[in-house]
Amino acid sequence: MADVTQFVRPDIAALEAYTPIQPFDVLSEQLGIPIEHIIKLDANENPYGPAPSVAEALRDCPFYAIYPDPDQTRLRRAISPFIGQPIERILCGNGSDEIIDLLMRVLVQPNDVVIACPPTFGMYSFNTGVVGGRFVAVPRDDNFDVDIEALADAVLEHQAKMVFLPSPNNPTGNLLAREHVLRLLKLPTMLVLDEAYAEFSSGSVADLVGHYPNLVVLRTFSKWAGLAGLRLGYGLIPEWLITHLWKIKQPYNTNVAAEVAVLQSLAETEALNARAKIMVAERERLFAALQTIDGLTPFPSQANFILCRVERGDAAQLKADLAKRGILLRYYRNPELANCIRVSIGLPEHHDALLAALADLGYR
After folding, report:
1. pTM: predicted TM-score of the whole model, two decimal places
2. Where is the Aminotransferase class I/classII large domain (predicted)?
3. All domains of the chain, ordered by start, with CATH?
């Protein structure tokens, strides 16, 4: 019999799997700690969860046995005034990850170059490998800011098809200045700005979509609206390009429950914006507290997390010691983030517990 394992594409066989964060139940079993005693600050989830009325709306929905609208009409009509873009430029996905995948499948041919600036969100390099593209990294500077001119040079040198930049950047929290976006839009490449954390920041360039044919902006309801488990994100995409994404997206890619939750969330924007302000204030309180701790160096952030370099001791060991106490942080093994941890913004009592645990471990 033929060796059927040869049927796998060689580039896929060589592809390194993406490493996601584990859910509560798995973590609880691994740590031997009840779920209710775990403080989960490792995945940038919203500690307040969805707006209170979302659960009621989900309970009352009578249409779970019916396929969702493939045209996403109600969703796009509701998102349009919220984001200030016409529905013709809006496409929803199973998380903004799906929009990243669709964009690459439409634009990237084998060996086409996709550029991102590490340390950054790992899905850009991962998806480039999935579609057979070639990923080129343009490292950030010592403050984790994008080297705009080095990036521009790389676009021209490699004739890059796409550039992906989160703003604020994950996991460093940097916001990309508007003037830098305008500079990059002059380049012969598709610029994709991932604004997953925009509601916690002081800036957005969503208004520029439609004015520049090479700009796409991604958004999500995972962070601001607390709907990470329901997976709904969206792209703001020029008309010339979005028509091709509609051709290849799965017909029923957004589920009924996610649609119900998003529509109800968009009816609760005032409450969700108030929560976001509370999280920003808590971020600043935690940042100030971390600044006073000998052996830790936090980096300023405009997202719902803080990156912190462990200057004394080993970050992996610190993460493990905190996990034994039921406090979960993100640790990175890549060289750009050597000895760094990332702390998601939680409730005030979560941060108080973190600071107390750090003190117990000798970080005062």
Report:
1. 0.95
2. 37-350
3. 4-49+270-360 (3.90.1150.10), 52-268 (3.40.640.10)
